[in-house]
């Protein structure tokens, strides 16, 4: 029982750490896309 709780707690905390990077990656990609667009103009 205790082991199960521990595994579940770690699995539950992981998404939090993984949920922050995508936002920065998304903003980075948007700037890259903007740069490409400017270069084409």
From TrEMBL:
Annotated region Disordered: where? Answer: 1-41
Key words, A-Z: Hydrolase
Q: Spans of biased composition, class Polar residues?
A: 7-41
EC number(s): the record gives: 3.1.3.1
What's one GO MF term for it? Answer: alkaline phosphatase activity
Q: Which domain of life is it from?
A: Bacteria
Write the protein's name: Alkaline phosphatase
Organism of derivation: uncultured Microcoleus sp
- Classification lineage: Bacteria, Bacillati, Cyanobacteriota, Cyanophyceae, Oscillatoriophycideae
């Amino acid at each position: 029982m205790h082991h199960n709780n521990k595994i579940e707690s770690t699995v539950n905390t992981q998404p939090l750490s993984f949920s922050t990077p995508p936002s920065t990656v998304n903003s980075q990609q948007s700037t890259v896309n903007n740069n490409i667009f400017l270069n084409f103009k």
